[in-house]
């Protein structure tokens, strides 16, 4: 076993009082158990099935600094950074490294009863919510025998704050909640982030998670998002990453869906170094449904790894996965998606598709769609493709006067757009389409007016 996890356990034991003093009871209550489990199993390396394409133990071996003192960055993120979607009003909250700031004064108003605040604030104003939901999806005994995730255990051990989004029963958000995470420090550092989303019965809302990093230093991020959707609730979750080649990001999503609830996820990875997205979705109630869509554009030495588990634990549930990856340079993309259908989960419907386009001869794609079914009345399909640009299509476009480079860009954009068109917010779809186009043209990151979004408005 790689011992890179031991430095974090030692850090926790040496500074336990400091860590707990700068956090709250709801988070502190889970640290000792996380430390015990992490000590027993360590951080996953490539010998761990769900980490065969990403060595987490090696990624966490360097000694990155941590903000245990909870020093607030001396910066006004609402003036220093810009992450706006033209034509879209949002309730905007920034998290710099792992320190949440308050809602922007220009945010769209929230409906009565909706809560968007830091976990530290929620520990005072809504302690019952944190006690009931925090860490309940991320580190409980598994219905499916996958064990505990070492990176999530590390996050639980060291997280001192985070963000709560709470939608009371019957609430409908008129404007999305936007949480912008920015890595910006005077030295290389590690950020430990949590986001807790609770949608009560019949609630409906959209949440946009943005991730940016300043170019000055290397950053290591572990982020855990927990989503709870009660009966009939609907949660739309959008995620966009635009960082840099020295950035390493482990993002994990856990979701618990009750009867007739729905979770849709649309994730776009534009730039970065090493990105690992893990999703564990549990369909617990009859008629629950989830749609998971991902678009990845990578080049250089970029690495993007998507690992997904959807558990159908009740009858008449549906799931749909579509992940598409365009790889240039020496980049690598990996997809491992598993659908598990429990005994008794009859009339399950599941579709799983992964398509990869290797636009350069040195790019590499790995695809592993899987099904594990213990019910006999189901409709489950999966498929994957790995290919290169269609020379016939390129020739067709060139014959109509389109230069070869432009033809390549058009084909790559059309390939990714099958994912983007599932974005249910029109201004966000238009924005992402524009950013993807800039990304393919090598123009992303040349912004003069926006420190965060990396593209002209």
Instruction: Tally the structural domains.
Output: 1
Outline: globular
Estimate the helix proportion, in percent: 10-25%
Structural class comes to alpha/beta
- pLDDT < 50 runs, ≥5 residues: 446-457
Strand content: 35-45%
Give the biggest sheet: 10 strands, mixed
Rg to the nearest angstrom? 21 Å
E-strand count: 19
Number of DSSP helices?
A: 12
- The overall pLDDT average reads 92
How do the strands line up in the largest sheet? 2-1-5-7-9-11-13-15-17-19
Distance between the termini: 48 Å
Write the SSE topology.
Elements: H1 6-14, H2 16-21, H3 25-28, H4 31-41, H5 56-59, H6 77-80, E1 91-96, E2 99-103, E3 115-118, H7 119-125, H8 127-133, H9 150-158, E4 163-167, E5 177-183, E6 189-199, E7 204-213, E8 219-229, E9 234-242, E10 247-257, E11 262-271, E12 274-283, E13 289-298, E14 303-312, E15 318-327, E16 332-341, E17 348-358, E18 364-373, E19 378-387, H10 391-399, H11 404-420, H12 426-440
Parallel strand pairs: 1-5, 4-6, 5-7, 6-8, 7-9, 8-10, 9-11, 10-12, 11-13, 12-14, 13-15, 14-16, 15-17, 16-18, 17-19
Antiparallel strand pairs: 1-2, 3-4
Describe this structure as you would to a colleague:
With 457 residues, the chain is α/β, with parallel strands linked by helices. The chain has one domain (6-389). It is built from 12 helices and 19 strands. The protein has helices at residues 6-14, 16-21, 25-28, 31-41, 56-59, 77-80, 119-125, 127-133, 150-158, 391-399, 404-420, 426-440, and strands spanning 91-96, 99-103, 115-118, 163-167, 177-183, 189-199, 204-213, 219-229, 234-242, 247-257, 262-271, 274-283, 289-298, 303-312, 318-327, 332-341, 348-358, 364-373, 378-387. A hairpin with a 2-residue loop joins strand 1 (91-96) and strand 2.
């Amino acid at each position: 076993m790689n011992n890179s996890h031991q430095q974090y356990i030692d850090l926790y034991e040496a500074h336990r009082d400091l860590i707990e003093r700068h956090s709250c009871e709801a988070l502190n209550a889970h640290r000792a158990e996380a430390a015990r489990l992490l000590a027993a199993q360590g951080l996953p390396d490539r010998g761990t099935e769900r980490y065969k394409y990403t060595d987490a133990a090696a990624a966490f071996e360097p000694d990155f600094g941590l903000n245990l003192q909870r020093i607030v960055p001396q910066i006004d993120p609402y003036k220093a950074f810009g992450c706006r979607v033209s034509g879209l009003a949002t309730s905007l909250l920034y998290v710099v490294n792992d320190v949440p700031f308050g809602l922007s004064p220009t945010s769209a108003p929230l409906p009565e009863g909706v809560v968007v605040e830091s976990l530290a604030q929620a520990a005072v104003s809504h302690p019952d919510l944190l006690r009931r939901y925090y860490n309940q999806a991320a580190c409980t005994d598994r219905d499916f025998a996958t064990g505990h995730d070492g990176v999530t255990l590390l996050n639980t051990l060291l997280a001192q704050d985070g963000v709560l989004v709470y939608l009371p029963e019957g609430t409908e958000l008129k404007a999305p909640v936007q949480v912008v995470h920015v890595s910006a420090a005077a030295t290389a550092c590690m950020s430990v982030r949590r986001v807790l989303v609770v949608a009560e019965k019949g609630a409906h809302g959209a949440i946009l998670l943005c991730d940016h990093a300043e170019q000055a230093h290397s950053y290591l991020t572990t982020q855990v998002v927990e989503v709870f959707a009660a009966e009939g609730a609907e949660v739309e979750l959008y995620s966009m990453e635009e960082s840099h080649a020295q950035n390493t990001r482990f993002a994990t999503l856990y979701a618990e869906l009750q009867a007739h609830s729905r979770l849709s996820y649309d994730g776009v990875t534009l730039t970065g170094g090493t990105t690992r997205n893990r999703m564990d979705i549990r369909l617990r109630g009859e008629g629950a449904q989830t749609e998971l869509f991902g678009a990845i554009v990578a080049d250089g030495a970029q690495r993007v790894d998507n690992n997904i588990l959807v558990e159908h634990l009740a009858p008449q549930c549906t799931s749909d996965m579509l992940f598409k990856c365009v790889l240039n340079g020496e980049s690598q993309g990996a997809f491992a998606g598993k659908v598990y259908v429990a005994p008794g989960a009859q009339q399950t419907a599941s579709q799983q598709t992964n398509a990869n386009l290797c636009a350069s001869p040195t790019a590499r794609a790995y695809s592993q769609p899987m099904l594990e079914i213990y019910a006999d009345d189901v409709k489950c399909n999966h498929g994957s493709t790995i290919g290169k640009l269609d020379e016939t299509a390129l020739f067709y476009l060139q014959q109509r006067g389109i230069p070869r480079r432009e033809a390549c860009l058009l084909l790559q954009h059309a390939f990714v757009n099958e994912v983007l068109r599932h974005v249910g917010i029109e201004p966000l779809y238009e924005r992402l389409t524009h950013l993807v186009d800039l990304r393919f043209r090598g123009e992303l990151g040349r912004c003069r007016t926006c420190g965060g979004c990396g593209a002209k408005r």
